[in-house]
């Protein structure tokens, strides 16, 4: 049910075809004060059309317009203020929500077409960074959003598992490595080896030469080299998977850069066929001047292919394999240029579907306004951040609700949820800072606040001792507090649509916060459990809020404990 649309339709009947329903919709405003009604229509834009003063037009339309969803209309100067029929709308909205359950707001826009989402994509043998965390949680939320819109998301972890660094790592491991140590602490040990390689190779350039040789062996499929590479990869992945498990995020594919090794020659051949390669000082490039971009470096003078060459192969592979409706890449801002080049090269190749590829950039997580750098050794290991958040959540729970069953589990859901929620509540392109203390608060604009609000709604339902709120036609509520809640429930399809069109999970996070805030106000101002005629309707509202908050959180990738 979309009451804005109902009002637009009613207006359209009066105004006639000089304005379409869509045009009327865009003109509708939300009055600044609640006492001015729920929706306002300014008549200014009709003045020219009808050659009358807007005041007069407003008065005339106000006389005649009518809709079952509108209780009364007030004409104030050039404005028509609509007061909606709360009784009718609340009954309809609650019925729709209770009927649909978790499918509330779903549409079939995507017609089951595939949407690959390139997300997380850390580099083997290196710590997964906070940037990769952002990519993981943003990608996961986008997957859930496109799924609500009727698409089939395909979550792809495009691992950085190829490159000359693996030659160096193989050399370092053979010189100084220990199998046991790597098994115990894969990433930390591999990183140590890599760092040591760089230190030692400064004194001993011979090492670099060996690194190059071993990478060559790896490329040529040498058994020893391949075995080590595979092992580094699987050990690293084990460690990454621990984090993904904690975040409760899964992937449909781990096809990383190496997956495209045998698909590179075809890309080069295609580029050659289309005659867009040029050789510049030994390197093979695609000129992108007409796109106002630097040339894309496809092959180095020694024949080695590059990051972008692999992404070309991956893009073509994804189009062939998934016949995608859209192909998304949740990757930091700093790679914006890379994705522009990628799309431009594909465009040059004549692939118009490159227009359906979208880079979804995001900002940095900073500390004290500065970029967290891994180089300087300030590696913020994700696990540590999550551990801190969980410990802080546990402290809060101990203080608030010491008898809570499953305290550890709930603390985990709250701590991890807080980190995810904080990441997603900000518009993704912005940089943000955070401290664990701030984000694990049960009050304020936090994940725990939303979870806590939902748990409170669940506890009201428990107190009411009802197992199920039946779907019914007559859950009508008329007070101003419930009305704010009803409106947020009603708007859900538009909210999802906006989140989808902007690829912006923060739209969902804000919806969750607003719904939680509106519900808490309602709860503070009404006596939900008092026995009277309206009680079933109030409980229906509580149930609807509990379910919708849970759905918002689910989309974001945050769990919703029933008690906390
Ligand atoms: N591994 C890369 C990095 O850590 C990110 C890969 C992003 N995905 C892609 N298809 N280029 O910077």
CATH top level label of the largest domain: Alpha Beta
Number of helix segments?
22
Percent of residues in helices comes to: 40-55%
Bound chemical compounds: arginine
CATH H-tier superfamily of the largest domain: HUPs
Specify the biggest β-sheet: 4 strands, parallel
User: Under the CATH scheme, which architecture of the largest domain would be assigned?
Assistant: 3-Layer(aba) Sandwich
Shape: globular
Compute the CA-based radius of gyration.
28 Å
The spatial strand order of the largest sheet comes to 5-4-9-10
Protein name: Arginine--tRNA ligase
EC number: 6.1.1.19
Keywords: Aminoacyl-tRNA synthetase, ATP-binding, Cytoplasm, Ligase, Nucleotide-binding, Protein biosynthesis
InterPro entries: Arg-tRNA-ligase, Arg-tRNA-synth_N, Arg-tRNA-synth_N_sf, ArgRS_core, DALR_anticod-bd, Rossmann-like_a/b/a_fold, tRNAsynth_Ia_anticodon-bd
């Amino acid at each position: 049910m979309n009451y804005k649309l109902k009002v637009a339709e009613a207006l359209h009947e009066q105004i006639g075809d000089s304005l379409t329903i869509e045009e009327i919709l865009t003109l509708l405003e939300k009055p600044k004060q609640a006492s001015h009604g729920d929706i306002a229509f300014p008549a200014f834009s009709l003045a020219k059309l009808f050659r009358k003063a807007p005041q007069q037009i407003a008065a005339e339309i106000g006389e005649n317009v009518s809709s079952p969803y509108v209780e009364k209309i007030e004409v104030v100067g050039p404005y028509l203020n609509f007061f909606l029929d709360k009784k009718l709308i609340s009954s309809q909205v609650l019925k729709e929500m209770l009927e649909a359950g978790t499918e509330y707001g779903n549409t079939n826009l995507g017609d089951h077409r595939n949407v690959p989402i390139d997300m997380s994509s850390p580099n083997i043998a290196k710590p997964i960074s906070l940037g990769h965390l952002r990519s993981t949680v943003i990608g996961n939320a986008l997957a859930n959003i496109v799924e609500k819109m009727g698409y089939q998301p395909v979550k792809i972890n495009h691992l950085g598992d190829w490159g000359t660094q693996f030659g160096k790592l193989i050399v370092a491991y053979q010189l100084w490595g220990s199998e046991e140590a790597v098994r115990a602490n894969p990433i930390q040990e591999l990183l140590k080896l890599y760092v040591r390689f760089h230190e030692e190779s400064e004194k001993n350039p011979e090492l670099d030469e060996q690194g190059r040789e071993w990478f060559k062996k790896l490329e040529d499929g040498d058994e020893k080299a391949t075995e080590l590479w595979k092992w580094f990869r699987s050990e690293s992945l084990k460690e990454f998977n621990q984090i993904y498990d904690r975040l409760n995020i899964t992937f449909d594919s781990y096809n990383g850069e190496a997956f495209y090794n045998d698909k590179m020659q075809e890309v080069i051949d295609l580029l050659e066929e289309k005659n867009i390669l040029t050789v510049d000082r030994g390197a093979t490039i695609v000129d992108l001047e007409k796109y106002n971009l630097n040339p894309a470096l496809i092959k180095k003078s020694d024949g080695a292919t590059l990051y972008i060459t692999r992404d070309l192969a991956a893009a073509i592979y994804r189009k062939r394999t998934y016949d995608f409706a859209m192909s998304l890449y949740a990757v930091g801002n700093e790679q914006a240029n890379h994705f522009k080049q990628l799309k431009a090269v594909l465009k040059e190749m004549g692939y118009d579907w490159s227009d359906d590829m979208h880079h979804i950039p995001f900002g940095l997580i900073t500390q004290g306004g500065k970029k967290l750098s891994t180089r300087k050794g300030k590696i913020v290991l994700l696990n540590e951040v999550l551990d801190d958040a969980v410990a802080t959540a546990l402290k809060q729970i101990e203080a608030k609700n010491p008898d809570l069953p499953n305290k550890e589990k709930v603390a985990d859901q709250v701590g991890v949820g807080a980190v995810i929620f904080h990441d997603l509540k900000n518009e993704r392109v912005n940089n943000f800072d955070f401290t664990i203390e701030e984000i694990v608060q049960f009050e304020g604009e936090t994940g725990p606040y939303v979870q806590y609000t939902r748990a409170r709604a669940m506890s009201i339902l428990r107190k009411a001792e009802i197992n199920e709120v039946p779907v019914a036609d007559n859950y009508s509520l008329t007070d101003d507090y419930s009305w704010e809640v009803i409106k947020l429930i009603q708007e859900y399809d538009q909210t999802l649509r906006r989140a989808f069109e902007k690829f912006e999970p923060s739209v969902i996070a804000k919806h969750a916060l607003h719904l939680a805030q509106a519900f808490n106000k309602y709860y503070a101002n009404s006596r939900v459990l008092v026995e009277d005629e309206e009680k079933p309707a109030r409980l229906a509202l509580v149930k609807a809020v509990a379910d919708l908050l849970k759905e918002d959180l689910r989309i974001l990738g945050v769990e919703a404990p029933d008690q906390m």
